Amino acid sequence: MSRDEWSACDATRLAELVAQGAVTPSALAQMAVEASAWVNPQIGSVIELFDDAVAAPETGGTRLDGPFRGVPFLIKDLGATVAGRLQEQGSKFLRGNRSDRDAFLTAKMRNAGLNIIGRSTVPEFGVCGSAENPNIYVTRSPWNPDYTTFGSSAGASASVAAGIVPMAHATDGGGSIRIPAGANGLVGLKCSRGVFSIAPGLSDITGYVSTQGCVSRSVRDTALFVDSCRGGAPGEFMPYWKSDGSYTTLIGRDPTPLRIAVSHEWGRYAADPHFVAELEKTARFLQELGHVVEWVVPDIDFEEAFRAQTACYIGNFAQFIQRMLDKRGLSTPPEDLIEPINIRIWEKGIGMSYTERWKMQDVFNTVSRRLGQFYEEWDVILTPTFSKPTPRLGERKYLTLSDNPDVLNWFYELWEIFSYTPLGSLTGTPGLSLPLAWQQSGLPLGMHFQTRQGNDGLLLQLGAQLERAMGGRFWNGRRPAIYAGL
Q1: What is the arithmetic mean of pLDDT over 5-19?
Q2: What is the reported pLDDT for 205?
Q3: C-alpha–C-alpha distance, residues 97 and 113, integer Å
Q4: By three-state DSSP, how is residue 71 classified?
């Protein structure tokens, strides 16, 4: 397989080639290793490759007769654990941390035939929007290495965009699948709460905003991933959404005409003027496909929602850090091992009272129900995936290396650029970023589609319709400056 053939194939096509006997899983794994050698020194998206999984794709119980048939796959360095492998979460504090078992989703991915051959980069604990600590690693956009990839699924998105692998594991607690997908020209779906398990470390009650998934270059790859890996682990607190049929089948036909509400002014936040122009183009494209499109803002209290979301992050991350400290018998986070903003998050959140937590949950409930009412009239909400241009590397105000003394102010500066994705995480509703536009810098710009709970298939169906309307490929002849293909 040539470099161009490798980088042109999505995971579904590679699985078809394996099924036809045209290529072996071992050969695919070796191609991924070679692709990493070509581009990873320039973008820093892969932390390590697992030699045993490359040599023997069945390692760890990977089913080579699963739907992905041994397609090589990267695991994000937080979220789902892999037995015997390091999971350091972008932190000096967790250097050498090794998992003792597969997470439930990891087992599902192996059963689907995904060969986990390595791990991808993340910012420390997945908190900020860029994997950019020079003392650990810096992950660069393959479209232009002077720019960030966004995050927290930074290495996953850069690796898929650059052609190292066709798809990769990702996680999302406020936009960490959708935002880097949008900045790297990828398909990024955050599923409804109750599609992918986050067991065993968290449940959908303790995790609240967290979910897992993948980033890919095609809608059909994402659909097959959901079909193959969805479902709850034993002991889940809530029922898990089930689909009447496979999403892989559903995306083969266009959706009926949809009512799509378009907006970009959410509370105090609004999109860059160029982004608004790109949003208008997408709206016209949807109208040409027969959908009803109007400019309508959801009737919710955005200020209240952002306050509650911020409180949730601070409380959750503070408890996460405290649990690590307890395991090591430490009373405070060591300043030489944990980044400054993460220490301030711990300081702010470790004393959160039950009353404060209850008030946060009350807002989650109120906002979720008001948004649910909105979806009684509208099928889909469309916004840009993020609201401001992708920053160049070194913009410290978005990093957990920031010296901002006010952690609340630090979060609200994040919301200025990551304005649209947190709502879906708060409400547990699905969101899909599709590579439909371009920034003035030449970097991709995702368009973000949201819908009601459990309606994930509709987003994929709409995404597939748009993909077909663009000739079957979103990039329209473009490709990253740093790319595994010739």
Answers
A1: 96
A2: 81
A3: 26
A4: coil
